[in-house]
Amino acid sequence: MGVSKKEVAATVKDAKVLAIGAGGIGCELLKTLAVTGFQNVEVIDLDTIDISNLNRQFLFRKKHVGMPKSTVAVETVKKFRPDINMIAHYGNVKDSDFGVDYFRNFDVVCTTHGLPSRFQLPLRRGLGSKKALRVAEKNASSVRRLCLAAEVPLIESGTAGYLGQVTPHLHTEEKKTECFECQPKAPPKTFPICTIRNHPDRPIHCVVWAKEMLFPRLFGKADVTDLDEAEAAAEEGEDGELKPLADDISFFARREDESSVAYAERVFTRVFDTDIGRLLTMDALWKTRARPLPHSLAALVPDTITKCEAGASTGTSAAAALGLHDTHKVWSVAESAAVFVRAIVTFLETRGEEVGEAVFDKDDKLAVDFVTAAANLRAANFHIKEHSWFDIKGMAGNIVHAIATTNAIISGLIVLEAIKVLMKQYDALRETYCTRVPSNKKLLVPVEASTPNPRCYVCSKTRLCLDIDTKKTTLGTFIDKVLKRRMGVNSPMLSTDTGFFFEEDGEDMTKRERELLEENLARPLSELKPPLAGGSILEVEDMTQCFNCVLLIRHTDALEGKENPDGFILQGEVPMGTAEDSLAAVATADGGEKDDAESDGDVMEITEAEAQELTERKTPGKRRRGAEDSPDEAPTGKQVKTEEVVDDDDDVIIL
Q1: What Å distances lie between residue 512 and 448, 494, 516, CA to CA?
Q2: 194 is a catalytic site residue
Q3: Which of 42, 38, 66 is closest to 52 using CA atoms?
Q4: Widest CA span in the chain
Q5: What pTM, to 2 d.p., does this model score?
Q6: pLDDT tens, residue by residue, 454-465
Q7: Angle CA(589)–CA(489)–CA(510) in degrees, nearest 5?
Q8: Active-site residue, from 147, 194, 459, 465
Q9: CA 202 to chain centre
């Protein structure tokens, strides 16, 4: 790097480092910082140690289970570096103690979030805990924005199985790189209901069917689900699907005086035999596909009652009750059938009070038994490869199992980039991707750090343009969906030049003010006083993140369909200018006339392919990986970001 070892050692010793997270990557990072010679380190983590962490988080032992990760990690590090000034904070990084002034105390911040932000991993909507993931993403967003406000360099990292990445983010007078929000996030992977329902062709389709359709129909709330709406009758509808049976809504309810075994047998016959037979009548579906194969329970498990009575005292696992203890073994079709029936019987007889309210939990062995058996039976119906209990738990829980070696590699790369920042070797900064499959005979692929996007609403302070139905969208929906979920705002404070002001749940609010707050949250934007209608310029501020931006609101009739599933369009394509310029842009978008050349200068929509093409021009010779490329390969350049999950840097849960 053009500097002596003594200079590096002295700089490292004097530097103050903040580490966010003490999990999989965090443990390796703290160890690496200590052995590299860093003297002043603080670590923040809200999590406690679970026994499942012990196979990859080597600063912890069995005796530490239930204790705070940050505290134990620091204690362990001090055993081999007793002179290090390492401080543990057991708390939430969003706490008021960790504001922008706190961040300014450090020379560099290192985060260990979990999922690589730019890998085009296959994301699955509808799987996993959305609430937990949303909370975790807000924490990560707060760290990024606080570092931006404090002008403290941020080294961000993540791993997902064999994949990993390290990305430096700087926004100082000396050097500016792009922030996390400079590039749009790719939409999550979704699956058409008709494919899952009528002609699955991938293992994940079968898992989604078992977890999202069948499990809630049998054990969850008794609402009508896609399973009910789509189950077939012999007659084919105009759209190529089968019309629902008259008794579909009530079929899956347990009948009066019906034994648990009889109920389980009836459900099995319906979903794996009768319904498959009905699908076979849809000749158009099977012109280019292999015809599905119905299952007969009597042929597969002739002694069903005996199987269910065996191990009746075991209520935690149907598979274990049947002697199936190897979670990595792929069950035969007959074994899956036996587990399916046994799981239903066990659930009804030992956890009957949960029926009607149960929700799938990846840590619930009985629930995973049921989903594994159902998914494999469904897979066998459609000639799809079956998977083990362990694999299906990963798919159903959206788990990418953490690998200790990847965590160690990434932690080393974090420290290397941190040293470059501390030594002000900015031209040497690299985004580095760890791959599973070599790229040009290399598992580590470095890419030059990118410059900020001039249209980014976070670091470049451009105005955002929001197309939304102001007559139907309430203030509460706007705050929840647009500000909190899409923009990552924690505590919004809103104002306009026309006198509108809103602050969410202020500490000094009177009872009447809180009542007015609730009333306003339920009102459409156009009915607020003063209204937020087409042409409104709304200032958004979040003091907890030292974040602010400006929204130009344009009224648009209800946006629906696959193109706009959220019901609004948010673009950061309108550059900062005068209020008059902004209003002119809004007027033009709402139907006014404007010269084409002028319009092209104000609004430019970039597709994913175009964004990648533009990036390729910045780094010649690098091939950009598209959405169809294997997720096992790292991108060799800038990507459109996926939605990042930052629950912890352990096993990664993908939304």
Answers
A1: 55, 19, 6
A2: yes
A3: 66
A4: 83
A5: 0.63
A6: 777 777 666 778
A7: 105
A8: 194
A9: 21
